[in-house]
Amino acid sequence: MIMRCASHGARRHVQPYGKLGGKAWKKGRKSVSTVSKIVPFNSGSRIVETACRTLSVASHGLNALEAKFADRDFAAIFLRMVGMIMNVRGRLIVTGMGKSGIVARKMTATLTSTGTPALFMHPADAGHGDLGMVTPDDIVLMLSHSGESNELGPIIQYCKRFGIPLLGLTARAESTVASASDVCILLPAVREACPNELAPTTSTTVQMAFGDALAIALMEMRGFSADDFHKFHPNGRLGAQLLKVRDLMAAGDAVPRVCEDASLLDATIEMTRGRLGGTAVINQGGELIGAFTDGDLRRTVTGTQQLTEAVGRFMTVPPLSVGPDELASEALRLMHMHNITLLFVCEGGRLMGAVHMHDLLHAGVA
After folding, report:
1. Among 152, 170, 221, 336, which one is least packed by beta carbons within 10 Å?
2. What domains lie within the chain, and their CATH numbers?
3. Is the pLDDT at 294 greater than 80, yes or no?
4. How many CA atoms does the CB half-sphere of 156 hold within 13 Å?
5. Is 122 part of any known ligand binding site?
6. 10 Å Cβ neighbour count for 271?
7. How many Å apart are CA 43 and CA 131, to the nearest integer?
8. How would you classify the pairing of strands 166-170 and 183-186?
């Protein structure tokens, strides 16, 4: 960098300010820290005590929230809030600024995954067009610990102008959010775990817990089942745990089956065709009466038995089976418990299909 002196017009070279490799900069710079006193890492006990104190403060905040529900007025307001959300024709629009906004995003995700249609609206974007996502059929849930975030103003005005119900969640009864809300939940006044009592810690934990309580209350009121949950979580490990046996079983001609008077040779051929390591043994009515597996075949042929003998003499009875609407994870549990790799699927005693351990594991069931 070259600078020109104003008085004489002479030029002089100056070390660039941001060039840390320069000797002059290294020599003249002072270390800058964002903290005034750093605790050495060898003070392990103090660090652990701080962590435990944080958890203790958070625990007190959660206990205070739980105690709130014992108050009849608070419980009545909560029930009214739940009723309004249950009866809304549109969606629940959740909003909040700063840390409350982060909690609002998580709350939105929990609500949508448990049966309550919800959207997150960022207050900073609301006044720049995103208010258009709010329809007369919707309801707005506003989170603000202080109840005085300036960015929430346009949303409050919009709700009042178009008669959109506004639900508030704040800790201050005299705040703007509390006074503007049609229904307002007043969270307990809690101490922040931050030693300066400034950084939102306990307050956001309490907000998060209330959001979970609200979502689960709505979930139970809707009768939201595991089947419904699976519709919204088809992928990943969670989706695999909610799969049913009928989703993974082989059916129709893919299921090996023989009658009880079939020969061992016929049963062996059928097992080989099915590639499941076994065959079902059924009666004339199509009901499962036994199972004949690779293990049964090995035990049979090592004896003096002839392959022309009836398979019914050597099949495993009673056969272990599972219903088509059982969770796939339950089928896998039975396989592990009985040390088998194949389960036949029956409904009302009739053979419907077969499920192999490899299919369950390949689908991510655990």
Report:
1. 336
2. 61-224 (3.40.50.10490), 245-362 (3.10.580.10)
3. yes
4. 20
5. yes
6. 20
7. 51
8. parallel
